[in-house]
Amino acid sequence: MRDRDWKILRIIEISMRHHEWVPVDEIIKKSKLDSNEVLYRLKVLNRHKFVNRSTYGYRLSHKGYDGLALNTFIKRDLIKAIGNKLGVGKEGDVFTVLLTSNREAVLKFHKLGRTCFTRGKRYRLYLADKRHISWLYASRLTAEREFQVLNDLYPVVKVPEPIDQNRHAIIMGKWDGVELKRVDLTKLDIDIKKLFWDIVEEIKKMYNIGYIHGDLSEFNILINEEGDFLIIDFAQAIEVREDKIVLDILPGEFKMDIEYYLKRDIGNLLRYFKKYGIRESVDEIYNYVVGK
Ligand SMILES: Nc1ncnc2c1ncn2[C@@H]1O[C@H](COP(=O)(O)OP(=O)(O)OP(=O)(O)O)[C@@H](O)[C@H]1O
Ligand SMILES: [Mg+2]
């Protein structure tokens, strides 16, 4: 990829605010390059699937958007290599990357703007109906959102260290551990009851700072051999004081309330820990977290 290819991609990206398909004439005009050169580069970009083509013009593909974000991190001299994919069968694409400082980190591309205002499948459908909220905009919003939450929580709460964000991508510290889902806690030399209460403590700290995770489960908590843990995936986090604003934006049926989502997170956690003999009530943990 040459600088001019990136330039053309960026022109398409920006023009997609106004077009579903960006007309070739507009790309040529904005690029200030020779039209033959633009046509040639568009053909190559299309062959490499960085753009999609129709009779109306061109639009950025997911791969093209990933490329733009990746290129920005490289230009910022932040990352120098991209490694293997982490986590299987998930929505976001998550990779290990090597920073120029030689430290390993995690790069997460948000693929859907499924969580910019609220959570859940119903809302995703709602978003899909709204043509004017493009996936580009929605996925960027989700990434900005997750990055903001990490910045607000780190390092008080055990969450990944936020490093950088661009477009729909975030870079965060890599933590060596596996999802709770994939371990048998009895095989680890740890106090499971203490682990449970330590996690509750993090939920409480999070709440005090002003957030509810919103998608807490054994898939979004990493644990290592020593029994230390990290809570990840804040794409769906809910701001405790935000519910009023959200209610204004959303139609009535999407009304959400803090208590419901916090209890759902706690319920998920309890369901997971049940097989390890933890029997607490959702209400009591909820009251503890909110400080009642
Ligand atoms: N900071 C991190 N350190 C190490 N591994 C990580 C980190 N963040 C994510 N991972 C790995 O990548 C997987 C997917 O990450 P995450 O849960 O954030 O994305 P997701 O579930 O695909 O996203 P989303 O719910 O936003 O669509 C995790 O299950 C974990 O294995
Ligand atoms: Mg996850």
From TrEMBL:
Its EC number is 2.7.11.1. It catalyses: L-seryl-[protein] + ATP = O-phospho-L-seryl-[protein] + ADP + H(+); L-threonyl-[protein] + ATP = O-phospho-L-threonyl-[protein] + ADP + H(+). One of its GO terms (molecular function) is ATP binding. One of its GO terms (cellular component) is preribosome, small subunit precursor. Residues 80-292 form the Protein kinase domain. It comes from the Archaea. Keywords: ATP-binding, Kinase, Magnesium, Metal-binding, Nucleotide-binding, Serine/threonine-protein kinase, Transferase. Coiled coil: none annotated. GO terms for biological process: maturation of SSU-rRNA. SUPFAM superfamilies: Protein kinase-like (PK-like), Winged helix' DNA-binding domain. The keyword Kinase applies. Its cofactor is Mg(2+). InterPro entries: Kinase-like_dom_sf (IPR011009), Prot_kinase_dom (IPR000719), Rio2 (IPR030484), RIO2_wHTH_N (IPR015285), RIO_dom (IPR018934), RIO_kinase (IPR000687), RIO_kinase_CS (IPR018935), WH-like_DNA-bd_sf (IPR036388). Belongs to the protein kinase superfamily. RIO-type Ser/Thr kinase family. This is non-specific serine/threonine protein kinase. It comes from Methanofervidicoccus abyssi.
